[in-house]
Design a protein that fits this description.
Blueprint: E1 6-12, E2 21-28, E3 33-35, E4 54-57, H1 60-71, H2 77-84, H3 99-102, E5 107-111, E6 115-122, E7 125-133, E8 148-154, E9 157-163, E10 183-190, E11 196-204, E12 213-221, H4 236-245
Parallel strand pairs: 7-8
Antiparallel strand pairs: 1-2, 2-3, 4-5, 4-12, 5-6, 6-7, 8-9, 9-10, 10-11, 11-12
């Protein structure tokens, strides 16, 4: 429909500084990729996954579409005010989902009977999320950055319910804070061609969202990728100098 936000990939004219591009594809906010020409599907030839297990990574277009979706989250005036202060910009910490999940970096999924482990690479940092299957959230869980996750299967879809997040200065992404009342439900399903995974997250936070927000993305199956070596920890002194250079 007119006005629908999309991310477009295109090749510029190779015969000089012309005024034309050849559109390759567009990615819509539901994570779907729409090639303009049949030949362009060769640009994204992917292997078929047997299950959700394996190595995955969103492509750059999927990242752009997800950032656009997060920018349109229905945040409260309080959240808007906090966002403009850039409180989290340059801090040495890894942001939780939804931001963590949509980055175009490597992640893996390991599935066993009692738990699912999601391993995210984040600019040299590594985050492990353990999903306790067919369980309940225990009482008196100590809040943490990535919360406490339980999961179950709905057919071939993995459903992850996470609570007990600690307040975070960018817990809703892009310097939008989240409160201790943040609650997320993630749904992971193979696409029909089995070359991608459909990732959907619904976020609730009555303090900073006027209503639940939903974001959908697709992750490419990338068995060819490996995790990068862990880098040195973020240097708080260097980060402080960066923060001091930001416009007031």
């Amino acid at each position: 429909m007119p006005g629908t936000p999309v991310v477009m990939r295109a090749n510029p004219n190779k015969d000089g500084p012309g005024k034309q591009v050849r559109i390759l594809d567009v990615t819509t906010q539901d994570g779907a990729i729409h090639p303009f020409y049949e030949s362009n599907t060769r640009n994204r030839t992917l292997a078929e996954a047997k299950s959700l297990e394996g190595h995955w990574a969103p492509n750059r277009a999927a990242l752009g579409a997800a950032f656009g979706a997060m920018a349109r989250f229905p945040i409260t005036p309080e959240a808007r005010t906090a966002q403009q202060k850039l409180t989290a910009d340059g801090l040495c910490f890894v942001e939780p989902v939804p931001f963590l999940a949509v980055l175009d970096e490597m992640r893996s999924i390991q599935i066993s009977k009692n738990e699912v482990v999601l391993h995210f690479e984040n600019s040299g940092d590594h985050v492990l999320r353990t999903v306790h299957m067919n369980s309940k959230h225990p009482a008196n869980v100590k809040p943490s950055r990535h919360g406490h996750s339980i999961g179950h299967w709905e057919g071939d879809t993995l459903v992850i319910d996470t609570t007990d997040y600690e307040p975070n200065a960018s817990g809703l992404g892009g310097n939008v804070p989240s409160s201790a009342r943040k609650h997320t439900v993630e749904r992971l399903t193979l696409t029909p061609e089995r070359t991608r995974l459909r990732y959907e997250i619904t976020v609730e936070d009555p303090v900073y969202l006027t209503k639940p927000a939903t974001l959908t993305q697709q992750w490419d199956y990338r068995p060819d990728l490996k995790f990068s070596p862990r880098s040195e920890a973020c240097d708080n002194e260097v980060a402080a100098r960066y923060r001091a250079s930001l416009p007031k």
